[in-house]
Every structure is written in structure tokens, then in C-alpha cells.
Amino acid sequence: MTYIIGEIGQNHNGSVDIAKLIVDAVARPLTEELFGYELKRMDAVKLTKRDLKQELSASQMAAPYINANSFGATYGEHREKLELNDEQHLEVYKYAKSFGLDFVETLCATGCLSMLKLFSPDKLKVASRDLTNLPLLAALAETKIPIIVSTGMAGKKELDDAIDVITKYHNNISILHCVSEYPTKPENVNLNTVKYLQKNYGQYTIGFSDHTIGISTPLAAVAMGAQIIEKHITLDRRMKGTDQKGSLGADGIYRMVRDIRVFEMSLGKEDIFIEPSVMSSRVKLERSIATNKNLKQGHIITDQDIHMLSPGDGFKWADKGSVVGKTVKTAINENEIIYIKNIE
Question: Quick one: three-class SS letters along 179-239?
Fold first, then answer.
């Protein structure tokens, strides 16, 4: 079953309460209304932690940052407003765990490892921009916590270098195809990279981190065999913040996870067979050999006496040899099914 991660990232806008409300949206019961199926919810939520001392150059942190999505006069002030501290991450972690959800952390600097003194996330995520940050990868891998890497800014060399570092410590690695364009244009998604990763890195879990608008692309990725789906989520796409518009709101979360779970149910097995559930329809709708005229007792049935009508509980055309040449035992009216009891 697909492992689905709801990426809160920093869509909490610096508020633990908003983060918890997003968890609520993930944790609500999930059903398929027509058939009444109870479906598995998202598996995990994810937060992002930055160490602002290891984020940007001093000049960039001090640069003016005035726009519709700004939370501060400088970029540093903006970033500081959006950060939750270690204890606040722990609070959201405990809240997610109370619903049985896994908790994933994207740690963007070695300084963020202080969080692990308070709790151990189920998985650590390496952001696309940090795939070449090999010292960070080594520090994360040393914890032995399973690692997810995104390839949003990477080619084969960058991915191989990252894997070489991580595998010095462990092999519990997931690789997510990703395109670091927000939102990603359809022509740039290149979902066939999922197949490439499956063929060339099949010893690892392969998935897709999605930045497209809507839910069709992650569903298509699941159809291609992606075992992990990551998608940005929020309370309301109209909220302030650069990631909000490209995220799924509460209704989108519900629809995406529902459609993935229903799709998983529909895959079945690689075979062709008559599904037991269609047997009643088969009897009602399929055709059987029937008379095209009144047939008297003692009549020898010929090809000119028969055609096909519903229901499908009589002889099929492939069984015509069991009907043609037989004697009518009791008279049969025109346009009636010929049953075995009618002939001898």
C-alpha cells in the first residue's frame, strides 16, 4: 500500500495551533461514500526545521523582504517568524502520534539534530536543495533513522554521491522523484523518472514528491508503481505563505487519499477471470440461444430456428451443437430461451 506523507512544511505559519489543525484534516475518517468503504488515511505528516545560523549568508538574511507573503522586514526576520522550536515540534509530534500517524522531519542543518534529544521521528527527509550537502547527509545517516531523499535538483551524479554517503551508515533509503519548481508545470514533471529509478535503484523504496496543482499526477505516479507519495498540505490555499497556493486544502487531502486508496483496491491481480460479483449481471444481460419462431413438439431444431436473446442462463452460441439437431420435447413459443429441459 502506498505510503502517503502530508507535508505541512512551514504552512503552519509559525503557529503550533495551525499545525495541529492541519493534522486534524489529515486524521479525519476517510470513506468511499458510494460503497461505504472505510479507507486508510495518510500515513504521516511532515514538518521542516531550519537552523537560521546555518541557513543563508549574513547579507541574504539581512536583505529586505517585503512582499505579500512576508512575515518580516528582512528575510532573516521572515524565516524566524516561521520557525517552530524543538519543543513545539515535539508538541506537534505527540499530537500526530495521538492519531496513529507517523511523523517525518526535514532537517535542514546539523544544528537541527538537537531535536532528536526530545524525540525520534519515524523518518528523516533530505530536502532537494540539501542532496549535495554531504556533511548534513552523513550526520542524518549516522542517527540510523530511515532517510528519504528528494531528487528535485539532482542528476544521477548528485544522487549517487548522496547514496554513497548514506550507505556508509545504513541502507534504509527511499528516493522520491521530484521537480523543484513551485508549482511544477505538467511538461516538466517527467513521471517516467519513477520508472528510471525503479530500474536503476530498485534496491531502495521509490516514490514521488509532488509539486503540481491538483491530485491527478500523484495518482498517476501510484499507477506507475510509486510506493511513497508526498504532497504539500494546508488548511486553506488562500492563507498567507509562498507554499499555500500549491498545497492541498482539507478537501483536496480527502480526495487525493481517497482516490489513491480506491485505486489501490482496483489493481487486483495479473489475470483474466469472471469476477464473482458480475455473475448476476451476466445472467441478466448476456445472450442465450432462443427460438425465432414457434417450435412444435417433435421439431428437429436447425440453424434457421434460433437467434440470441437475454437472459444469459441458457445455451451460449459456442454450445450450439447441443441445440441444433435436437428434438423439441415440449412446444416452445417464439422468442423464448431454449433450455435443456425443452429438448432431447
Answer: CCCCCCCHHHHCCHHHHHHHHHCCCCEEEEEECCCCCHHHHHHHHCCCCEEEEEECCCCCC
Domain assignment present for residue 310? The answer is yes
Residues 186 and 324 in one domain: no
pTM score, whole prediction? 0.89
Nearest to 146 by CA among 119, 174, 113: 174
Q: Which tens digit of pLDDT belongs to each residue from 66-109?
A: 999 899 999 999 999 999 999 999 999 999 999 999 999 999 99
- Number of Cβ within 10 Å of residue 100's Cβ equals 9
- Grouping H, G, I as helix, E, B as strand and the rest as coil, residue 126 is strand
- 15 is in which domain, residue-wise? 3-266
Buried (b) or exposed (e) across 255-265, using 16+ Cβ within 10 A?
Answer: ebbbbbbeeee
